[in-house]
Request: fold
Amino acid sequence: MDFTAEVERSLRVLDGAVTVFDGVQGVEPQSETVWRQADRYHVPRVAYVNKMDRIGADFYMSAESIVEKLGANAAPIQLPIGVTETFKGLVDLVKMKALIWVGDDLGAHFDEVEIPEDMKEISQKYRDHLVEKLADFDDKIMTKFLAGDHNFTVPELKAAIRVGTLANKFFPVLCGSSYKNKGVQPMLDAIIDYLPGPLDVPAIKGVDELGKETERAADPKAPFAALLFKIQPDPFVGKLTFFRVYSGTLKPGDTVYFARKKTQERIGRILRMHADKRAEIKEISAGDIAATVAIKSATVGETICDPEHVITLEGMNFPEPVIQISIEPKSQEDEQKMGLAMGRLAEEDQTFRIKTDEETGQTIISGMGELHLDIIVDRLKREFGVQANVGRPQVAFRESIKKKVEQEGKFIRQSGGHGQYGHVWLTVEPQEMNKGFEFVDNIKGGRIPKEFIPAVEKGVRESLDTGVMAGFPVVDIKVTLFDGSFHDVDSSEMAFKIAGAMAFKDACRKASAYLLEPIMKIDVTTPEANMGDVIGDLSSRRAKITEMSNRGNARSVKGTVPLSEMFGYATSVRSLSQGRASFTMEPSHYEEVPPNIAKSVIETRTAAAAADAK
Reply:
């Protein structure tokens, strides 16, 4: 979960995916997370059960876990012949032929032969099962199946599998051992046979300059439109910007329009990337992915398009960071380098945030987990030569309120000449979880001139960053400006901004403010013998266990747990299980902190701020 941004931006621009599962474990916790992300972006998939040569491999269990744990309408189109050291080939249920491999590693190749006698019965059973699944969404297959005709041709079955896969209604399951180079070749053929090309996916949707919905087909002759999905520092060219072209054609020297920033730039070199190798190309068209260099306006999720045919494509959604640490450069030279390095890293990774704590002056960096921030700090030292002192990880708490309150804010200063006068009345009330902040202007009769109202909102927005309990950000609040007064001479934007901030802070103090903490979904996979210890340890961390199930020859424990209780859990769970248990976590939601723990958090925060101030 620490590197979920990579998954999000990849799935946003891909047309299809191969989901690789472990033949011993079946569906693992992180597979479920990534599968849900692929569902959200409607990415067609084929499933590939790997490691069939390993001890304990069980293809049938793994295939069943794809149906049970992911809720996928999946069925095998291949069956393994042999298992572990006897794995030598597979049965192709579409052709009803056996593929037997000769040799290992890169020199491995297969011969197509008749299905072995001992595999014929199970092969027929699974082929009938496959045909039943395909009949649900293919009329030709359905008609023949109901008429009792089971003589399906290979093109008929391939066409039906392709239709189901493209519509995300069916997921073919294949198998193999990539390490031994067995099963890889048929899997590559399946990519061609069943996953979409650019012309198979619907036209990309977006909005034009007037905000009307429009779309672009994958046509090289259509107006150009592409999405920037990744920015990567490069030691040779400074910065590589990766983009996916949805329509039109682009050549070096062409001018493109940045739809969100409303700026134009000329494109320099265009590179086709092959892992760490690159090749310069003269043009790129619909369906391609490439990189370019030295774009100043590049940000992840930005649309670049033809300046004469503007379109803004849907961007990307990244989760909010849940953990933070303080970081201080060791020297003046490090301080200068750190600012540049942090900017580069934040540009590249949308789940990495930087801010300055106003009370302590410290730089606070936030991310998705301990490992994520460890990697960021390591990259600062390794890639940018920044030496820094790092504080202990802190949880990204939030604050909110329980009651609706009306509050006056008045800022008056008189010191000869022009004074300062700002006077507002605000209603501050809670909103439902995850609704965010809302500001409503309800001034009537010109009680406050229109030019001062944005200043009131700005004062309130700036106050959201530091709550009244412990200085954590305030969330899920609605603020209504409904009354106030002004002075013809002394009123100013600054005065109304301060008045708005004062009223908001005072209202929060009266509105039963409370702390919120991030709650994580957790999935622990443990041997049966250690399950009691694992559950006991989770309970001591305020976890709520929601599900216990079998996962292969191990047990899975699912639940929710406060992030603040999970620091160092990786070490604990290993010691409880002699190193055999593993776990995954992902953000779930925010919940109110119990009063006794909230008191401790506030006292610790206040003491730390006082110490830093000294």
Observations:
- The CA atoms of residues 224 and 391 lie 47 Å apart.
- Residues 515-597 form a domain with the Alpha-Beta Plaits fold (CATH 3.30.70.240).
- The radius of gyration is 29 Å.
